[in-house]
Each structure stands twice: as structure tokens, then as C-alpha cells.
Predict the 3D structure of the following.
Amino acid sequence: MQRANGFPLYKVAWGRIDEGDLLDIARTRAFVDNLLMRTPTYCRAQASNLLAHVLAGMEQCVDGKHLPSRPLPFGPNKRLIAYFGHDTNVEAIGGLMGTSWIPNGWVQYQSPPVGQHVFELRKKQDTRPKEGWFVRVYFISLTMDQMATGCRVDEDYPPSMCPVSIGDRSVLHSSFDIPFDAFRMGLRFFIDPYAVHSDLAGWLMGLPLPIQLPPRPNFG
């Protein structure tokens, strides 16, 4: 945090560590977080409701109809919906989906300040209204140097962005561009309906499960 807050390296920890030491500390922190916040029971309880809302928002966009279980302001015409939380939420979402990421300047599984999962719902051109939809997932964060220097972040100076692969590729068909039907089916399997708000849980339990169930994510 001293480095991210702008301390020069010769002042971080009274000048007793360098960039390599910072990464070693980050690995230790990520290892502890992995033990605490990527366990199956915790992830299902912590992330199921949030991911159910993400999925329902995409479903509305694809279907063009408002789901009764969704708040009225989050209708099918919304093009951007943001949920704000903590690193615990970010890590639980990753654990539930079995995803892995390595932000530039950080370490695997680490959720730096303002780190975020981005779910993009896209549509192939020249396809019918309810066809050709697919999902891309990214993990985005500032690098430690960007935080330390307070530099501008825009299209010319972008944050760190790495694509994320979800779950079992044999079921979801692709590492990164996931057909929406497969994405829906995968999340239906990962999400625990009993940890989801009652109205939304009813809709969720009506979705089909995969015929061939994928293995549960590797939370290790």
C-alpha cells in the first residue's frame, strides 16, 4: 500500500525491500486469500447472488424482455451495469467460476485495488435477433506503477487487461469467446440457487443444466 500510495521505493518499508520483495509479499497475500476466499462453500455463498444478477441482466438483453425478478431500473435496454464491492467479492466470483488471472505487475489470483471482472455480452453481425450472442470476460486493474504515479488512465494509457477463461472448456466450447447458451448453462451449474434472492432463484432453477456436468472448479 505504501508503494501504491506513491512512496518511492527507497522509502517503502524504510527502503528495506525492492520490487522483487513486493511481488513476494503479494504472492504470500494471494496465497492466504486463496485459502480463505476460494473455498467452495464460501464462494457459493458469497458470489452466487451477484453472478445470478449478472446472468439475468444478460438474459434480458438477449431476450429483449424484462425479468420480473430484476429491479425496474435494470431493464433490457441497459448497456452498462456496474456492481461495486470489495476484493472479497472479486475473489469469490473468480473462485465460483474457476477462473484464473494474472494482472500486469501483480500475481496470480490477486485482486488489487479497483480490480474488476468485466463481462461483455457481444453479438455477431448478420445473425438473427436471438442468435449469435457470446460472452467475453476480462480482469482489469491498474498496475502498481500506475497507482504510485497517479498517471492518467484512458485509451492511450490503458489499465492492465487480461482475458479470463471460464470453467471447463469441453462444456463451454471456448477458452474466451463463450456462446451465450453455454455461458448460461455453465453459470447455472456453478451458482447455488439456495444462495440467491428468492425471486431470482425461481428463474434460475428453471434454466436447464448441462447434460454432461462439468467438474466443479478447481478452487486450489
Q: What stands out?
A: The longest strand covers residues 133-141. Helices lie at 19-37, 40-63, 87-97, 144-149, 169-172, 180-190, 198-205. Confidence is low (pLDDT under 50) at residues 169-174.
